[in-house]
Specification:
This is Dipeptide epimerase. The protein is α/β, with parallel strands linked by helices and about 350 residues long. It has helices at about 60-75, 80-90, 95-115, 120-125, 140-155, 170-180, 195-210, 225-235, 250-260, 270, 275-285, 300-310, 325, and strands spanning about 5-20, 25-40, 45-50, 130, 135, 160, 185-190, 215-220, 240, 265, 290-295, 315-320, 335, 335-340, 340-345, 355. It contains 13 helices and 16 strands.
Length: about 350
């Protein structure tokens, strides 16, 4: 099965509600999609969101990286030579992790199709369902409470609450949501680098003192401030999840070595795809560190690739794969089934997506 073409397109999917964090506000999914075809007629698909404030990638840079650097490097290679493809992919251009992730997942899609199996089974097959949280965007407290109650009514048992803009006022925000949804719903807090280390300790301690029972706090301090994150991790009881601080296996190794966080958040757009994400999983397994699998503002295509990885690995104990649930519509055919908080894998070979609008 030889790679004969790599094509780039775009998708546009409106969000049901504006997505607001401490870093940005987004109203539509406007992503780059990739199709890799082979001499057998098989096609594999991938996706890359332009998340400049986190990865540095824009639509223009993703397209350029794929068309001018990655495509020439991979044309003619055999899908069965998976490691060879991945070495060449990652050496074709530095950084540009989102572009690499889109091509990586399309290659893995084809690789699993080649052997007639769902990707999650080839990667480890730990289970066939994944439970995800749903994100509650930063808004006035009454709106966030209403959004949280709506999510619970839809069947979600885990809420990820965006904070990081108003300091100690975030404590009242979380307290209001906890009172509204009750004790049976898990709450995760994501500061998106919005606090200093001292602020984070003060705010998280206040949440603990109020008995808000937070499952974890994600990336409380700026990505580069590992010393600050380590101070927070050491000072509070609530587990700290490193997100923007973890792009590569080397980043993961340093966080584990220095005990800068309790948990690692793996996102394919940060790692450059599944191949590098598997290395982080192996490191985490070696040292007994649990992982979350997350996503940017991605549609069902990229999130489905991440869901396959989550279903494959036991070390991935949490999932933040709500991208498709935030979209107004599903423009794709095939893939895992999304049922209000539960992602169910199917027996379809590869990732399972069989129709991408950009290539129809």
């Amino acid at each position: 099965m030889k790679i004969t073409e790599i094509e780039v397109g775009e998708i546009f999917v409106p969000l049901a509600k504006p997505f607001k964090t401490a870093l940005r506000t987004v109203e539509n999914v406007e992503d780059i999609v990739v199709r890799i075809t082979t001499d057998t007629g098989a096609a594999g698909y991938g996706e890359a969101p332009p998340t400049a404030v986190i990865t540095g990638d824009t639509k223009g840079s993703i397209r350029c990286a794929i068309e001018d650097f990655i495509r020439p490097a991979l044309l003619g290679m055999e899908i069965e030579d998976l490691d060879g493809i991945m070495y060449r992919l990652h050496s074709s251009i530095v950084k540009n992790t989102s572009a690499k992730a889109a091509v990586d997942m399309a290659v893995y899609d084809l690789y699993a199709q080649r052997f007639g199996a769902p990707l999650y089974q080839l990667l480890g097959g730990a289970g066939d369902t994944v439970e995800t949280d749903i994100t509650i965007s930063v808004n006035p407290v009454p709106q966030m409470v209403a959004d949280s109650l709506e999510a619970v009514q839809q069947g979600y048992k885990i809420l990820k609450i965006k904070v990081g803009k108003e300091g100690l006022a975030d404590v009242a925000r979380i307290a209001g949501i906890r009172k509204a949804v009750g004790s049976g719903i898990q709450i995760r807090v994501d500061a998106n680098q919005g606090w200093t280390a001292k602020e984070a300790i003060r705010i998280i301690t206040a949440m603990e003192d109020k008995g808000l029972n937070i499952d974890l706090v994600e990336q409380p301090v700026p990505a580069h401030d590992l010393d600050g994150m380590r101070a927070v991790t050491k000072a509070v009881y609530t587990p700290i999840l490193a997100d923007e601080s973890v792009f590569s296996p080397e980043d993961a190794a340093e966080i584990i070595r220095t005990r800068a966080a309790d948990l690692l958040n793996i996102k394919l757009m940060k790692t450059g795809g599944i191949w590098q994400a598997l290395k982080i999983c192996s490191l985490a397994e070696m040292y007994g560190v649990e992982c979350m699998i997350g996503c940017m503002l991605e549609s069902k295509l990229a999130v489905s690739a991440a869901a396959h990885l989550a279903a494959a690995k036991r070390v991935i104990t949490r999932a933040d794969l709500d991208g498709p649930s935030l979209c107004k519509a599903d423009p794709f055919t095939g893939g895992p089934l999304y049922e209000n908080g539960v992602i169910r894998m199917t027996d379809a070979p590869g990732i399972g997506i069989t129709r991408v609008p950009a290539f129809v």
